[in-house]
Amino acid sequence: MSYNEPITPRQLETLQQVENFLKNQCYSATIGELAAALNISRTTAYEHITALREKKLLVRSTGKARSLRLTKSGERLLEQARVCQAERCDFENVAELVGTANGVFLRGRVSAGYGIEAAEEQTPFSLPETFGNCEDIFVLQVCGHSMIDAGIGDGDFVICRSAQTAENGQIVIAMLNDEQATMKQFFIDKKAARLMPANDAFEPIYSTTCQIQAVVIGAVKRF
Prior knowledge:
alpha+beta; Arc Repressor Mutant, subunit A; Umud Fragment, subunit A; 2 domains; 7-stranded antiparallel sheet; two-stranded antiparallel ribbon; 31% helix
């Protein structure tokens, strides 16, 4: 199994159960405990855990009991799932994009102005090499039309870098009331943060309590 294969919904549930057990019990779950929580056989639970370890989302210390824990990539994926749930996005599509992004090839350049000489190459396209440290990068699927004038439409995917602060004018993922996530252009006014849509049909959001989760650094559009 390749690390680039997408995570399945059942594997996501397994990852969430591992996290829940660690938070609630302060130690990791056994195969039997995970199987019982997921209502699956021990064999199936073992297969899910093995797949998640191969995808570098879980890690276990050899010869040590109750040592199963999430990697940084696993933690980032679950955080992404929580934001997607708040936005009511289709996580399966997001997980598929995250899982396969490193398998895309860059085949050269194309002119958007005058023509340039056509020369095809075959270079693996890597998110870390293009956007920086992959530990801080995740992908979200966009739901809605409030950022359409910024070139980001419903169903597009945005590449985000985890952040707690942003500069004026940056497009951010912000959490409102600890439960609602939104993507808007960020500005600091005198008394509050102003989250601006890029669509005249939507009103700005003013908030004194919003929490920035990430800054948008790229987008992927399907035609």
